[in-house]
Write the structure tokens for this entry.
Amino acid sequence: MTNTARRWRLGLGVACLAAAAVVGAVGYLKLSLEPSLNHQLPYLASAGMALVVLSVLGASLVIVDQLRTDEARMQELATAIQQLADALAPGIERPARREPSSETSSTSATMSDA
């Protein structure tokens, strides 16, 4: 499955937000053209409810898509960190080599002379 096929939520969410903007603009224009308050109420109710529903639906779809994308990224990062830890583990877990040097033995000899 391609990346665009998996991200249908993002496209649908953006479309809902765009539709909410159109509904809001049309509702405002209809309200502003009606002089009587009694004639404005149906436009206010229908456009207002549609605006709220489309906005909430669009925003929730965009957020869900982003959370799913973040989940996949976090899984990829966890896998990469585990591979790095496995690659570095032998070098990190091995104790450091200490080779007796002539400097250390001469220092201890000088201290015993004093």
About this structure: The radius of gyration is 34 Å. Residues 3-63 form one domain. The first helix runs from residue 3 to 6.
